[in-house]
Amino acid sequence: MSSIEARNPNMVFSVTKLYEEINKVLGSDIVLSGVRVKAEVSSYKSYPSGHIYMTLVEKSPQKDKDGKDVFYRISCKWFKWDNQYNKDKTKIKEGDVITVFGNVNCYNQNSQVNIIVKNAFLTDEEGIASAEREKRRIELEKKGYFDEAHKKQVAPKYPRAIGIITSQAGDARHDIEKTVQKKNPYVQLYLCHSLVQGAGAGRSIANAIRFFDKKEDVDIIIIGRGGGDKLDLTAYDDVEVVEAIYNCNTYIIAGTGHTPNRTLADYAVDKLANNPTDAAYEAVFDVVSEIERINNQIKELNFNIYRTYDFYDRMLEEYRLKIESKSPAKQLGDKFAELDKISQGMSYNMLRVLNLYENGLSNMSAGIQMNNPKVKLEKLESELAHVSDNMSRNMRDLFINKWNSFAKEYELLIAENPAKKLVGGFGYIQKGEEPVTSVKDVSVDDEVKVQLSDGAFMAKVTKI
Questions:
Q1: Distances (CA, A) of 408 to 401, 403, 418, 423
Q2: In which element (H, E) is residue 126 found?
Q3: What gap in Å lies between CA 241 and CA 228, rounded to an integer?
Q4: What is the tens place of the pLDDT at every residue in 336-354?
Q5: Phi and psi for 77 in degrees, rounded to 5?
Q6: β-bridge partners, 115
Q7: How are beta strands 428-431 and 447-452 bridged, if at all?
Q8: Which residues does residue 77 pair with via DSSP β-bridges, in sequence order?
Q9: Burial class (CB in 10 A: 0-12, 13-18, 19+), 31
Q10: Which residues of 138-158 are buried (b: 16+ CB within 10 A; e: fewer)?
Q11: DSSP assignment string, 325-357
Q12: Of the spans 56-65, 171-180, 223-232, which averages the highest pLDDT?
């Protein structure tokens, strides 16, 4: 008997305790604690840690409200310590039918029921979902829905507006918008929210395609969604979606998931991208990079123009100098300069010879004059006159210095005389005994005293 059966049926559980009780029941159940399940693999991921995560899927015998197939799925966790010796783990791929052995567990962080796999084996059966999808692909291919000749080979280079078909709450929408804004912020973006998985998703996507195809200003349509396993992409395998793409006159790019698996819609679209970001990148012309490229070309062109201009300007200056150096006027000028230099040399030499003879004659005359008594007397008189002149000059200089010093002191005294400032129309204004230095010191009707150089008068303030 489980612990839940032993408890009071009216007991109120916390969420944590409820998960504990659920896992106790699962762990004690003779079937669920050692369960064997055979189903198709819809996703299979092996991580560097050695753990493997799988999703098993099985088609339900019942249809949804739109008559579409319904699939049941369950997640599986195959930990490293349980799978390290299994030979089939490297051979398992999406679409294979396998048998797993393990125990059922309810993971409380996301309320998900998992199979904790202890062992897994490949079977020889073909997956039902994969087989039906392949059958549908062949039928659509025979109808020509995937023909390259029918597809639009060239996308509009400068789209005015792009229609985005995805979930408004999904990451794909934001990835597309950010990529378009980064490359070309001038493109108008329209979002048509659609389901991307589950019941009614195929019809929702097809209706969105038809809606955008009728809008005259939409040049490109992007359909896409974020990641997910193969089963999450079944909406894009819907025949109605493929037919809507085939009949669409607007260029369509698909960026469905981050998976190597191609959906049937991927075969029909005009352009296939790896993911929504790549789809957006393919859709728009890179205006930002083009403007940057043009600006760089303009800078390079301006640089080359300036460099070429500078080069020819230097060449022109060199040719001008060469022409001037070869001109007759320049050569004649050089000859005249050379002749002038020779003439100056000859004049200098002649003057030097004359100076030598003149100096010799002067020395001889000086020697005769030096011994003449009259000359000696004249020399003494000259020295006496020189001494007398020096004394007079020194007394005159002393008097002039004293007089200049007195004049400076007198000028400073005159400059400091307050009355001097009143000459020439200036006046000294007082209110009472205080000087008026600003208009803020007086008010209208105040009486003030105005002192001039030759007297004073009283005045009254009438306006400020």
A1: 11, 9, 18, 21
A2: strand 112-126
A3: 19
A4: 788 888 888 888 888 887 8
A5: -120, 125
A6: 76, 104
A7: antiparallel
A8: 53, 116
A9: exposed
A10: eebeeeebbeeeeeeeebeee
A11: HHSHHHHHHHHHHHHHHHHHHHHHHHHHHHHHH
A12: 171-180
Of the candidates 187, 379, 405, the residue with the CA atom closest to the CA atom of residue 281: 187
pTM above 0.85, yes or no: no
| Kind plus residue range of the DSSP H or E element containing 382 | helix 373-416
> Three-state DSSP class for 123?
strand
Residue 331's alpha-carbon distances to 321, 326, 335, 337, 338, in angstroms, are: 13, 7, 6, 10, 11
- Give the CA angle between residues 69, 70, 74 to the nearest 5°: 145
The whole-chain average pLDDT of the chain stands at 82
Residue 106 backbone phi and psi in degrees, to 5: -110, 110
- Are the C-beta atoms of residues 13 and 21 closer than 8 Å to each other? yes
Q: Which residues contact 434 (CB under 8 A, 6 or more apart)?
A: 441
DSSP class per residue in 223-245 = EEE----GGGGGGGG-HHHHHHH
| 271-272 and 251-256 beta bridge pairing | parallel
Sheet with 161-166: list strands edge to edge: 188-193, 161-166, 220-225, 251-256, 271-272
The pLDDT confidence band at residue 30, using thresholds 50, 70 and 90, is low
Is the distance from CB of 186 to CB of 232 less than 8 angstroms? no
Torsion of CA 433, 438, 440, 441, to 10 degrees: 0
- Name, in order, each residue with C-beta under 8 angstroms of 113's C-beta and a sequence gap of 6 or more: 74, 75, 104, 105, 106, 107
Distance CA 266, CA 256 (A): 8
